[in-house]
Amino acid sequence: MKKHSLKDWLIAVRPWSFPASAMPVIVTLAYLYWAYGVIDWKNGLLALFGIIIFHASGNAWSDYFDFERGVDRADTFGVKTLTSGQFMPLEIRNLALGLMVPAVVIGLWLVVRTGLPLLWVGVCGAICSLLYPWLKYRAFGDFVIFVAYAILPTLGVSYITVGRFLPDLLLIIVPVGLITVAILHANNTRDIETDVRAKISTLAMKLGKKTDVFLYIFEVIFPFLWIVVCAVLGYFPWWSLLTMLGLLPAIANARAMLRLPKEGICAISNLDEKTAKLQLLFSLLFTVTFLI
């Protein structure tokens, strides 16, 4: 096996995608602080660290199965750690399992600190991660991502920081979760042709490109409308309208997707990465509004 630098290992876990898991936790912490005043920051920071490691493990796990299944080849987009021969499949599989260990340890430590109800959140998250390759090949990927990187982290952070699950967190799950799912949807829309070749099924394939375009636009634009409505109704502070500063990048991403029918996949070749950057910007702005 080849020797790899730290940079090689970092690239292998796709760190550009980490906003999808980190930002829901950060936004939730800020919202809970705004709404309830006193929260357990130590538990919150442990959860943030744990979910990033968990996400890195899930990325490597998914890449391993994508390569073994023939989904990822030399001519596909995305990280080419396996298709280029830079890493052996066994290395990526072991990386995924190795990263899962500290993620589980952090999760169990939080269970000890807070209570057994959190264990069910962790078990659901682990199931989502382990079964994700199998589920995404059967068009359930978008649903799993919404559950694993929007619903579960938000509910989990609520429990470990204020001691209970709060239904009003749906207000932040929707906007942050939709943009998270948009990252995957952009990826799957771009990869339709290669996914057909690999004989798997994704939601993007089932909907067709025209519907895919409108779904992506909904996923990146609706969160801004949601925040405006929530601010008007008094659920969010008026400062939350600062998130509108992220609307221009969202529109730019939407316009890129609109070019798909005429220009083909070249128009959205790196739209998944741009959507992850949008998630980072949107969520940071959203976080700031609860701390002002």
TrEMBL record:
GO MF annotation: an example: prenyltransferase activity
Biological-process GO terms, alphabetical: menaquinone biosynthetic process; vitamin K biosynthetic process
Bilayer topology annotation: Multi-pass membrane protein
Stretches that traverse the bilayer: 21-39, 45-65, 95-112, 118-135, 142-163, 169-187, 213-235
Record's subcellular location: Membrane
Pathway: Quinol/quinone metabolism; menaquinone biosynthesis
Gene Ontology cellular component terms for the protein in this record: membrane
Superkingdom of this protein's organism: Bacteria
Database matches in Gene3D superfamilies: UbiA prenyltransferase
Keyword vocabulary terms for this entry: Cell membrane, Membrane, Menaquinone biosynthesis, Transferase, Transmembrane, Transmembrane helix
Pfam families per UniProt: UbiA (PF01040)
Entry keyword 4Fe-4S: no
Protein name per the record: 1,4-dihydroxy-2-naphthoate octaprenyltransferase
Lineage: Bacteria, Pseudomonadati, Bacteroidota, Bacteroidia, Bacteroidales
